[in-house]
Write a structure and sequence with these properties.
By secondary structure, the chain is α+β, with helices and mostly antiparallel strands. A hairpin with a 5-residue loop joins strand 1 and strand 2. The radius of gyration is 14 Å and the shape is globular. The relative contact order is 0.20.
Length: 97
């Protein structure tokens, strides 16, 4: 079973884009290279503001659908909480203690 990711991108116009991939680094390069989704091509650059692992493609597609159905406020909260947690993890790893 391949590992998939569900992700949210923040576009240059401050909108959010949700997608799935099995290689997040490559997909982000594709998006920022103008080879990603049509939605993001005119809204470059984009950056990852949320990601989660999904067991397989089917699970990732179901989670993507659920996120896309969320109200914008809930998606924004999801991104904000993930970014906050991600910063805390990075700061913890840099800590000399």
């Amino acid at each position: 079973m391949n590992l998939y990711y569900v992700y949210l991108l923040r576009c240059a116009d401050a909108t959010l884009y949700c997608g799935i991939t099995n290689d997040l680094d490559r997909r982000l390069r594709d998006h920022n290279g103008g080879k990603g989704a049509r939605y993001t091509r005119g809204r470059l650059p984009v950056r990852v503001v949320y990601r989660e692992e999904a067991g397989g493609k089917g699970e990732a597609l179901r989670r993507e659908r659920a996120i896309k159905k969320m109200p914008k406020v809930k998606k924004e909260r999801l991104a904000l909480e993930w970014l906050r947690d991600d910063r805390q993890r990075k700061n913890f790893r840099r800590s000399p203690y």
